[in-house]
Write a structure and sequence with these properties.
The chain is mostly beta strands. The protein has 1 helix and 10 strands, in the order ββββββββββα. It has one helix spanning 130-138; strands at residues 12-14, 40-44, 53-58, 63-69, 72-77, 82-87, 92-96, 101-105, 112-117, 126-127. A 5-stranded antiparallel β-sheet has the order 1-7-4-9-2, with no helix packed on it. The protein is globular, with a radius of gyration of 15 Å. The mean pLDDT is 96. The chain binds thymidine-5'-diphosphate (TYD). Residues 40, 42, 44, 53-54, 121 line the site of thymidine-5'-diphosphate. The site of thymidine-5'-diphosphate (TYD) has 6 residues, from strand 2 and strand 3.
Length: 140
């Protein structure tokens, strides 16, 4: 299976920010602010310091990851190149295509990681072993 995507397809998307003296709003609409239709939303919270989340790739799911509160780093890896993206604003999201290994780390205290996903939860969509990930796309 060829990897159709690379880390260069995983871009920061700026989301709308509606300013209000009493607090801001960021709306996210399927097919307007995202290149996929949202099927599922989940969020990570109460994350103990030093935790590393993720550690997998998805075969077909697209995601947008947003730091709804606090900050954390997202390491993305397409099997050839890797980079680390810091998320620290609720109006920026990191779009992650299928075929990308990701790890989430360096969570600040109280961080909330909001994930918008293109599919329902499906364990068979996960590749949870890095060598299997490399093998799936590059055969080594
Ligand atoms: P996982 O996606 O591995 O978490 P992370 O990448 O944030 O470290 O999911 C952790 C556990 O939660 C795993 O047993 C599957 C379960 N889970 C669901 O049941 N439904 C979901 O929508 C998600 C995201 C996870």
């Amino acid at each position: 299976m060829q990897n159709l995507y690379s880390i260069y397809d995983c871009v920061i998307r700026e989301l709308p920010k509606i300013h209000n003296r009493a607090g801001n709003i960021t709306p996210i609409s399927a097919n307007v602010h995202l290149p996929f239709k949202i099927e599922r939303v989940y969020y990570l919270y109460d994350i103990p310091g030093g935790s590393i989340r993720g550690g997998h790739a998805h075969r077909s799911m697209h995601q947008l990851i947003v730091s709804a509160s606090g900050s954390f780093d997202v390491l993305i890896d397409d099997g050839i190149n890797r980079k680390v993206v810091n998320l620290n604003r609720p109006y920026f999201g990191l779009y992650i295509t299928p075929g990308i290994w990701r790890e989430l780390l360096n969570f600040s205290s109280g961080a909330i990681c909001l994930v918008l996903a293109s599919t329902q939860y499906d364990e068979s969509d996960y590749i949870r072993d890095y060598s299997q990930f490399k093998e799936a796309y590059y055969g080594n």
